[in-house]
Amino acid sequence: MIDEQPLPAAADAALVQRATRISTVEGALAQIHFTIAQPGSVFTTKFALLLGAGPLQLGLLAAIGQFSLLFQPLGSLLTRRRRSRRGATVAWAATSRLLVFGFGLGALVWSPAAALALFMALLLASAVTQSVSANIWVAWISDLIPREVRGRFFARRSQWLLVAGTLAGTLLGLLLDGMQKSGDWPLIARPGWARAENLLPAFAWLFAAAALVGGIGQLLLWRQPERPKAHEVDSAATLLVAPFRDPNFRRLLVFAVWWMLAVGVGAPFWQPFMIDNLAMPLVEIQIYSTISTVASLLSLSVWGRLVDRLGNRTAMALSIVMGGFIPQAWLFVSEGHYGILFVEAFFSGVMWAGAGLVGTNFVLAIAPANRRQAYAGLYGACAGLAMMATMLLSGIFLPEPLALGPLALQSEQVLFGLTGLLRWTALIPLLLIAEPEVPSTAEAFITLQNYARVRIAMAVGRIARRRRVDRHPWRRHG
Known about the structure:
Layout: H1 13-37, H2 42-50, H3 55-68, H4 72-78, H5 86-100, H6 106-109, H7 112-144, H8 147-180, H9 199-221, H10 236-241, H11 247-264, H12 270-277, H13 282-310, H14 312-325, H15 340-366, H16 372-396, E1 402-404, E2 407-409, H17 411-424, H18 427-430, H19 441-471
Antiparallel strand pairs: 1-2
Helix pairs in contact: 1-8, 1-9, 3-7, 3-16, 4-7, 4-16, 5-7, 5-9, 7-16, 8-13, 8-15, 11-16, 11-17, 13-14, 13-15, 14-15, 14-17
């Protein structure tokens, strides 16, 4: 499952290997934290629904993560004159983790409306500080990991992160589902505190635990090595304006905005639709997530090799083609009839593994080495603003239900079908991006076709040889 292919030798291979180990363990702790407490997680969504969140609040809740990306350029400004990124990365991330402690406190003493307001305010502050830290971390790790293996590094690291997040989410989902149900628990006696009326206090404890795990991760991150950062002499204005003077970066931004506008349509409602419209328990939602995670784990190493050999553009094109088909499965589900979603989860996991890997790596591949942080920050800000716009519009202008032939689509399903169609159009700006040192997308697809033909021919040959042996057993020894 985990790709164990060793990284190629480099001038300081020991440094890179140590950084890889630390980054993987720290990332696993961070992933457990995010599985519980990031905007859009099933736990933050469920908590908001318990506090009475409606469509507008759900749209705002989902948009927080994208809005926070607007603050990514702040990371490049804060470290412009510094020779080290470690202190700033840890300080901003630790602040984000500490804010999570307060997520559930309002529910213990205030009305649901006031508790929801406090929760969303703290979630926004936590997401913003994490976004600043993430921008600094990306530059730190991109300087540390050589370009020729960066795709495989992110793929391998993501595999372990997905394992950690899935295990944590599944176990916690079982616990919270068990609290809402009456009767005995399987395997163990039902604890006295595990009652439905204690669900809100349980969320308060859950968020506190997430903050603690995230804080431990920051202690480990402090030990991660780094290369000395080049001293930047450009002014802040030059640092932020220079990327826009790069024609190729402008083309990348057009693609990012186009893609995120398409992805944002209906995005606030995937999990609420599961919880409210399909009446799926948390554990079934976690099974859905687990299938998606396993698919990501199985495909990430393939995506990483594909990125390193054929480039980010080709990998993203494949992801977009898949990404347009996947939402259409949601048009055929209803309460009690949603088995197709567990098939959709597999293909969704494969697709988002590729899209997520490219989203991290693409901007680093085209940015000059001395301006990766500024490029990454502006890329994240523009993409986040675009997705936030269609997320909020989805919550404000929720369409009416629609009868489409034999299908009676609910409002959310109309948006799910629309986002699939819009995603395909993102191929238009993608093909205009020039990626250095990789073949064109057309050449890459020809390479993939030839590879597929060879593999098919080899498989057919093996089958034919087996049939000949079965018909003439003496050939086994001849």
